[in-house]
Design goal:
Elements (H helix, E strand, L loop, with lengths): L1 E10 L2 E11 L4 E5 L6 H9 L6 E6 L2 E2 L4 H6 L1 E4 L11 H11 L4 H14 L15 H13 L5 E5 L7 H16 L3 E5 L3 H7 L2 E6 L2 E6 L1 H7 L4 E8 L2 H8 L6 E5 L3 E6 L2 H14 L3 E8 L3 H9 L6
Parallel strand pairs: 3-8, 3-9, 6-7, 7-8
Antiparallel strand pairs: 1-2, 1-4, 4-5, 9-10, 11-13, 11-14, 12-13
Helix pairs in contact: 3-4, 3-5, 5-6
Length: 309
Amino acid sequence: MIQIQDLKKSYGDLQAVGGISFSVPQGRIYGLLGPNGAGKSTTIGCISGLIEPTAGSVRVDGHDLAREPAAAKRSLGVAPQELALYEDLSASDNLAYWGAAYGLRGAALKQRVREVLERIELADRGKEPVKNFSGGMQRRLNFGCGIVHRPKILLLDEPTAGVDPQSRRKLLDLVRELASEGTCVLYTTHYMEEAQEICDELGILDHGELIASGTLEELRGMLGERDLLRLAGRFDAARAAEVLGVFEGLELVAVEASSLTLAMPGASRQLPALFGALGEAGMEVGETTLTQPNLESLFIKLTGRELRE
């Protein structure tokens, strides 16, 4: 649905995006992460057609954005970081304006406005001017304006910035629902827990370069990050070392009579085999604690800085 090939954008001597490539298929959520100034918003701008790339290609729903801009943009929905709302108009009128801009008319437009108001939980406030809305309500409406024309591809630039927890939860649920219905989603956020929760794949930008891309599991493996597994029970140190030595990448960190600590990649997938090997050797496993590297620790390791720097 989205195919980016060697995308570059420069402003004079400043290179904002330096030749990045990635793709996002139908029904998937791709999280684009990076520190401030990494090139996330510039990339979104190039995909939406608001910014002209210096080099490279952008294909949207099979259409080359440079050669077929109108066809490409018809498939796009955008919820920008800066609210794109008319505050003196009502929520319904804002949705109707953006729906009409994408060709909806008459009864179909009115029906779609009602559907979106229900979906973003603003049906009871549809006739009120937007200036009366809270920040969370405005964010939900901003999101609604991006989906009113049923886009195949949705670009979300910091869609939950500055909203209350209830509105954030609602927006995240909406994103997941749309992806499950087949929408292709490109998602930027400053919130690591959001990206880890909802994104199927992740791309990490730094200084305009895509320094890593893949699932969270793939990123962990790329960096050699291992899960830490702590087992409580009854163990024999020498026997444990012998039976667990057949597991690739496993390191025994500590062995005591009542506890066993080991590090290995993908430990969660190996639990049945680990338990089976220990059980066959006459050792008992009770309580299990698994600690995995999180996205924030991986991000800092890749970029050397926190996301908000």
